[in-house]
Amino acid sequence: MNYLHKMKGGGQSPPKVGWAEVFWSWIGSFSGLAAVALIHYNILDEMGLMLIIGSFGASAVLIYGAIRSPLAQPRNLLGGHILSAIVGVTAFQWLGGQPWLAAAVAVSISIAMMHLTMTLHPPGGATALIAVIGGESVHQLGYLYVVIPTALGAIVMLIVALIINNIPKSRKYPEFWF
After folding, report:
1. I need a labelling partner for 140 at 20 to 30 A (CA). Which of 5, 114, 163, 165 fits?
2. Domain limits of the chain?
């Protein structure tokens, strides 16, 4: 009975945020993703490279919308994505013949590595998964996937977060670096 009782919850929902917080979250996410997409479509796409991956959408929620969360801090953003990209590429290279296994291994080892390095960033799990299921264009990148799109895209989003999140007096980013 205790097991099922734990599923009941019991904590309070988070408080509603004000319009200013909504506004700055929107400005940050729009600016960060627009910068990454602009670089992608106007520079890298012509060279057959990519800069935008789906997991950056989830990162935007954290680094622009939940800026005080430990999961949104620079160490977590960069470390979580980069470690997970390495793990994802490695999992595909070793186990790509069994994509279901490569996907499960990539995400599970990424979570473990992020925990061990104190860089837990939930979108990192998606970054690892994209390395496995992203298709031929991602697979052809090999470990370049770690640098472009993963590290470079995360750095661009971090720079935008540092600029936008510190404009209003009510916001401060980051809470910590290391």
Report:
1. 114
2. 19-164
User: H-type helices in 16-167, by residue range?
Assistant: 19-39, 55-60, 74-95, 99-116, 123-133, 136-139, 144-145, 152-164
Candidates 24, 64, 15, 16; CA nearest to 170 is 24
For the cut 80, the answer to whether the pLDDT of residue 1 exceeds it is: no
DSSP H/E element including 11: none
Q: Which amino acid is at 139?
A: H
Across 40-68, b (16+ Cβ under 10 Å) vs e yields beeebeeeebbbbbebbebbbebbbbebe
User: What's the pTM value of the predicted model, to 2 decimals?
Assistant: 0.93
**H/E stretch holding 5:** helix 2-5
Distance (Å, whole) CA 97 – CA 47: 28
